[in-house]
Amino acid sequence: MSAEQAKIAAGIYAASLIEDGQKVGLGSGTSAWHFIRALAKRIGEGLNVVCSPASSTSRKLALELGVPLVELDELDELDVCVDGADEIAPDGSMIKGGGANLLWEKIIATNSAKMLTVVDPSKVVTTLGAFPLPIEVTPAYYGTTIKNIASLLERMGWSNVRVERRMTESSPVITDNDNYIVDAHLGTLTQPLELAIALNQIPGVVENGIFPAMSSGVIVGREDGTASLVEPGFNADEVRVGSQ
Fold first, then answer.
1. Stretch (H or E) spanning 25
2. Which positions are annotated as active-site residues?
3. Domains located in the chain, CATH noted
């Protein structure tokens, strides 16, 4: 429950930063869903906002809670999006996609004036890569796409990287776009932008879970119910122990 309490605290803090009249991107995953719940409470108290969701699950939750939704295509730009991360580094780079929603999440984040990331301390890292990198691929010839991903990683300096289609029991994980998720077990990722660009050049790759330097601020929740906002350039060790 301690990690869950930290996520709740981060979500509540993020919701407190939303201003009247803003257009808000709603991320996906447990931390983002706590933000949506906290935002719905503020809307019930009179906050006037419109929102665009980053997954079908977030859309469903927002509708259940009475959060007003507008399709992103109908807006010029979102003022802010709030989303979680599987890992986040000091420069604001992230690995996302543990919940298989990376494509929608990246579309929402890219079309927002700023992105706030809500996390518990365990998601703050010095260097990305311990969390397997999610890559969304088309079902057609996915086996060949996996081979091509592995070949690219080898050319870029990784050796014997495990690249595998994500499964739930005996069935493949299917994204909101009816695609597969492939996970690459990198270990360390020091040049996220370079790898993100290279992966997207592979036919069959739809998008990848590297969000290079995209976070404008990180809201770190704590198990005691407190939360704080840190800007890119933070010290990961200090943030994890709560001294920032």
1. strand 23-26
2. 105
3. 2-122+213-231 (3.40.50.1360), 133-206 (3.30.70.260)
